[in-house]
Amino acid sequence: MKEKLEQIRQEALKRIQESTDPERLNEIKVAYLGKKGELTALLKSMKDLAAEEKPKFGQMVNDTRSAIEEVLEDTKKKLDNAALNEKLKKEVIDVTLPAQKPRMGHRHPNTIALEEVERIFVGLGYEVVSGPEVEKDYYNFEALNIPADHPAKDEQDTFYISGDFLLRTQTSSVQIHEMEKGRLPIRMIAPGRVFRSDEVDATHSPCFHQIEGLVIDKHVTFSDLKGTLDRFAKELFGEETKTKFRPHHFPFTEPSAEMDVSCFKCGGKGCRFCKGSGWIEILGCGMVHPHVLEMRGIDPEEYVGFAFGVGLERIALLKYEIDDMRLLYENDDRFLSQF
Amino acid sequence: MNSALSWIKAYVPELECTDQEYFDRMTLSGTKVEGFTRLDKNLEKIVVGKVESIEKHPDADKLIVCQVNVGSETIQIVTGAPNVTVGALVPVVLDGGKVAGGHDGGPLPENGIAIKAGKLRGIDSFGMMCSIEELGSDRNFYPEAPEGGIYIFKEGSVKPGDDAVAALGLRDTVFEYEITSNRVDCYSILGIAREAAATFRKPFVPPVVKVTDNGEKASDYISVEVKDTDLCTRYCARVCKNIKIGPSPEWMQRRLAASGIRPINNLVDITNYVMEEYGQPMHAFDLDTIAGKKIIVRRAQNGDKFMTLDGVERTLDSEVLMICDAEKEIGIAGIMGGENSKITDDVKTVLFEAATFNGPNIRKSAKRIGLRTDASGKFEKGLDPKNALDAINRACQLIEELGCGEAVGGVVDVCEPIKAEVELPFKPEKYNDLLGTDISAEEMLGYFKPLEITYNKETNMLHIPSFRQDLLGQADIAEEVARFYGYDKIPVTLPGGESMQGGLAYQMRIEKKAQDIAEYCGFSQGMTYSFESPKVFDKLMLAKDDPARNAITISNPLGEDFSVMRTLPLNGMLTSLATNYNRRNKDVRLYELANVYLPKSLPLTELPDERKMLTLGFYGEGDFFTLKGVVEAFLESVGMKAQPEYDPKAVRNFLHPGRQAAISYEGTEIGYLGEVHPAVCANYDMKAKAYVAVLDIPAIVPFTTFDRKFSGIAKFPAVTRDISMVVPKSVLAGDIEKMIRQRGGKKLESLKLFDIYEGGQIKAGFKSLAYALVFRDMEKTLADDEVNAAMKKIINGLESMGIELRS
């Protein structure tokens, strides 16, 4: 019996190892391990054995069964794997074929630049607000310390409507609206559209955008203004950016300054972007003129503030190396889709 | 404003710096320098030569061969210039040198023109004699230079071997300044020199003006009456007699030329020189042309005509200030003199005027008359009345010094009381508090001294000189401290104080969402102008009485095309689409987020309603329902989960009458969408179908929310029932869906149109619709009879609409 068992085992293993497809394995399984299989038959013949040999023999049959099952299982796995690999080989694709991109639209470069600026100032605790574009003379000029006969009024080439109404020439008007709300302290930026009667060309547009900034609090200093705008410049143009503040004049700030940043193209060595100077003029700023605060009923002995104004198009043109402002308002898809 | 550095140095004699240092330090102390030009740029190895002999060129009729003594040697030069004579002193560029330009005076090449020894028609030539154009200038500034010939120095002014560039005054640099409008005093050489002295901490040495007296009195020659003292606060008049017109000295010509002023003759040059030097424009009249020996300053009358000395007739109005004599008008105050009193070469006696006119009035008059002059440009800033007398005395001094005439003693000075000079308490701590600095009081006072701001220790008051009209308060003084301490030395800090919550205003968050969704759906952001042509209304085929025609008009537009504030956002969108279409860009999708301006009354009595509109537009792939999908995706993204309603009433003329809808949300109209009317497309030169949607953001905002609530994932199975019907084409799917939703109740989870069909088996004028209805109960498994009951209600509802169901 023992020899018979060994013989079955050898024979089964041989047949298993020789088989090359899973179907065949199944047949083998039935032939040896099935209800009418050889091992089952052998087990049935156990009744002829002596009682004391029965458990031993039973054990041997079961061992043989497990051995065959194990090899069957292993071989099946191997064959399945081979079949799968074969299938995968046939499914090879050319991964360098073109992608099928979902069709996405693009934000306007002005907006991309604006969102950069917003991100920086929101991070510093500024609220983003807006104000009217059709404005009263008072908010655009008078309350900003630009009285009726001030030359600055002519300098700005204002579009007038009728009576006191005009198109705002600067987002500085929003400073006054914010002060009128009567909530102090103030930390705000106000992006928006402004208008000046400049003929359209590569660097001028009668309709463009500014971002106004205003901080009013009890202990604000010119050094805070410098620090804030220095941070802004570094965030916008890179940590290696240097800033330079030059005295300037705006009727609604005193002291006033213009800020230059080191040219981010050449790093300050001088190139065609910075016209060889190594610096690029970016914005105007200053400490809020005490008279402006007084006119809004804010005590300049108690509160001080600083303000700044940035040309959005200027930043967009510089940052994205756009050489003609007219492109920003033509909306040619070949232009917009580059952003 | 342009001026030569040498002129500044004349008043700051110890100033020594490179051009770049001057540029940097002046800019940092507040006198912004725009740029500078070296006058000797590309002028190398140029000396004075004396022509010793001239021979004809053997092989060329038009050339001559000169032996030229250049100091160290005598060299041979071949030239074609017609004006060279033996003994002439000329600028000579030696072998290996450079000149700035060609002899024709065209644009100067960046790197100049190198000159080398060579042969001309076989004869050696070791250099070149130069014309003024080759030296980078022209006859406007060197009127003595011949036309089309070699520059010839005046006998005795130079000797061979001298630096010819220096002899011509070209070893100099012209700086271009951008003076801010508050610094009226810096529109003058003396003002800038004072700033330079303070910046470089060197002494400021202004000219010493001596008033001479010939024993006569100006008041015996002229009387002055100012009738409109509001427009003329000071009028100084002096007289110079025995005038001899001739050229002004070269140093004066050079300084004027560097400032961009063409030298004319001694008299004109002196008035221009003093205008530059003091910033005070002056005018010279021929006294013999002045009737009644009287000057009257008064306003013109509306419609008066007047011939200015440029020979142009000007029309005046009653706000234009005139200088008149006893009989007639002789000049427009502060702008330009008259033809009738102009100086000619035969002038004997001159009347000088130095006055202080009202700045804004001059500015506006110049604008209305359309004549802006150097003088009006200075007056309009509002001049210091003290300056007028100083300037007129300086002019008379120069007249005598230059031998141009004899100054009559005395001055006729009609002057309103001059405003008291400003005094301000000195508050060093306040300046430090404002600047965030720690500068000692002593150091601050040190900055003030060269600015002529004086300090009285006893009263602790600062005295502001009259020419500093910009220093009115403590903040102004703080700026002076900052300027001379150095903006660059002020520390860099961040504001302290309570920390504040930053962020976007709510509507801006909604707008950002709109942008995100539009972009996800393939629309790119465009931007267009806020103003447009009034012809747009016809292009959009608006009815004559359409309220959108009530637009705000700009009174001084850049042209009709930019003259009205848009009331509809469509023109910009359609123009942009058409631009793309005509540039053959395929399938273009754009959106814009921008204001329309709706006046509450016209003319405006209050601010208009500025409404932010989201406008979507496209042509190419897609249709009405593409756009409708974008609209709904946006509304859902801002928490508007209810079903918007679409009203197809054709009320918008610019849209296809059968393919447009007003969009409402919970009963409020929030926008519209549709196919652009083909005739409107044609008006924009678009040959494709275009679709637009316009959403009124402020109308949407009240319905929006960023709150989100999880309602669980359904645990119980859904039951789906299909329903199909044939309805007249005029019945709207929207109405059917509304009925189904109403009747279906809470258990109706969703409905979906899965088939729509017309033609074939369907009778004419009808369409077949098929919906899949999904029912679900969140609490339990729905029983069949519940669904049946709901279906029955729905079917009854539809039947009540006259809808026939298909089995």
How would you summarize the topology of this molecule?
The complex is a heterodimer of chains A (339) and B (807).
Chain A lengths: L1 H17 L3 H12 L4 H7 L9 H37 L18 H15 L3 E2 L5 E3 H4 L10 H5 L4 E3 L2 E3 L5 H8 L5 E10 L11 E11 L4 H16 L5 E8 L2 E10 L16 E10 L1 H6 L8 E8 H8 L7 H4 L2 H4 L3
Parallel strand pairs in A: 1-5
Antiparallel strand pairs in A: 2-4, 3-4, 5-6, 6-10, 7-8, 8-9, 9-10
Helix pairs in contact in A: 1-2, 1-4, 2-4, 5-11
Chain B lengths: L1 E3 H7 L7 H10 L3 E7 L5 E13 L7 E6 L4 E6 L9 E11 L13 E3 L2 E3 L2 E3 L1 E3 L34 H4 L5 E6 L10 H12 L22 E4 L5 E10 L8 H9 L7 H13 L4 E4 L7 E6 L5 E3 L5 E3 L5 E4 L4 E4 L3 E2 L12 E8 L1 H11 L4 H6 L5 H17 L4 E2 L4 E4 L7 E3 L2 H8 L5 H8 L5 E3 L4 E3 L10 H12 L17 E2 L1 H15 L3 E2 L5 E2 L3 H4 L24 E2 L4 H13 L6 E10 L10 E11 L4 H14 L7 E3 L7 E11 L2 E9 L1 H6 L6 E7 H4 L18 E10 L4 H12 L3 E10 L8 E10 L8 H17 L3 E3 L1
Features:
heterodimer; A: 339 residues; alpha+beta; 2 domains; seven-stranded mixed β-sheet; 13 helices; 10 strands; B: 807 residues; Phenylalanyl-tRNA Synthetase, Chain B, domain 1; Phenylalanyl-tRNA Synthetase, Chain B, domain 3; 6 domains; six-stranded antiparallel β-sheet; 20 helices; elongated
In a nutshell, what does this entry contain?
Helices cover 42% and strands 20% of the residues of chain A. Chain A has 339 residues and is α+β, with helices and mostly antiparallel strands. The termini of chain B are far apart.
Word description of this protein:
The complex is a heterodimer of chains A (339) and B (807). Chain A is of the alpha+beta class. Chain A has 2 domains: 2-90; 109-336, 2-Layer Sandwich (BirA Bifunctional Protein, domain 2), CATH 3.30.930.10. Helix content of chain A is 42%, strand content 20%. Chain A contains 13 helices and 10 strands. In chain A, the strands form 2 sheets. Chain A has a 7-stranded mixed beta sheet with strand order 1-5-6-10-9-8-7, with helices on both faces. In chain A, strand 3 (160-162) and strand 4 form a beta hairpin. In chain A, helix 1 packs antiparallel against helix 2 (22-33) and helix 5 crosses helix 11. Chain A starts with a helix and ends with a helix. The mean pLDDT of chain A is 91. Chain B has 807 residues and is α+β, with helices and mostly antiparallel strands. Chain B folds into 6 domains: 2-39 and 173-200, 2-Layer Sandwich (Phenylalanyl-tRNA Synthetase, Chain B, domain 1); 44-167, Beta Barrel (OB fold (Dihydrolipoamide Acetyltransferase, E2P)); 218-415, 3-Layer(bba) Sandwich (Phenylalanyl-tRNA Synthetase, Chain B, domain 3); 423-489, Phenylalanyl-tRNA Synthetase, Chain B, domain 1 (2-Layer Sandwich), CATH 3.30.56; 506-703, Bira Bifunctional Protein, Domain 2 (BirA Bifunctional Protein, domain 2, 2-Layer Sandwich), CATH 3.30.930; 719-806, Alpha-Beta Plaits, CATH 3.30.70. In chain B, 25% of the residues lie in helices and 27% in strands. Chain B contains 20 helices and 40 strands. In chain B, the strands form 10 sheets. Chain B has a 7-stranded mixed beta sheet, with helices on both faces. In chain B, strands 3, 4, 5, 6, 7 and 10 form a 6-stranded antiparallel beta sheet that branches. A 5-stranded mixed beta sheet of chain B has the order 12-15-18-19-20. In chain B, helix 5 (250-258) crosses helix 6 (266-278) and helix 6 packs antiparallel against helix 9 (385-401). Chain B is elongated and about 125 Å long. The relative contact order of chain B is 0.06. Classes of the chains: A alpha+beta (339), B alpha+beta (807). The interface between A and B is large, with 85 and 90 residues. Strand 1 (127-128) of chain A pairs parallel with strand 27 (503-504) of chain B, so a sheet runs across the interface.
